[in-house]
Amino acid sequence: MGKGYAEGSAVEERLAALERGDQRDEPPAVERKAVYGATEEEPEKHFLGWLGDVDPDELFASGRAWGITVLRRRVG
Questions:
Q1: Could you tell me if 48 and 59 are in contact, meaning their C-beta atoms sit under 8 angstroms apart?
Q2: Helix, strand or coil, per DSSP, at residue 34
Q3: Where residue 24 falls among pLDDT bands split at 50, 70, 90?
Q4: Which of 29, 37, 55, 68 lies at 20 to 30 Å from 13 by C-alpha?
Q5: Over the stretch 35-74, which tens digit does the pLDDT of each residue have?
């Protein structure tokens, strides 16, 4: 038996939640990939920009940033 089916299917639970009024009126959260790293001006890891707006490989190769990571973050 797969996960989520030990006490009924996930669809049945979702429908029951909707009937109880458990549904939120909020739209689902939008996520984007954010680039974080350290720079000479700010040596602590911080937000550098959104992936696509900044190129983490170019930032590292140029030496302008290091310790670069790309993480999913909510927008807005």
A1: yes
A2: strand
A3: low
A4: 29
A5: 999 999 999 999 999 999 999 999 999 999 999 999 999 9
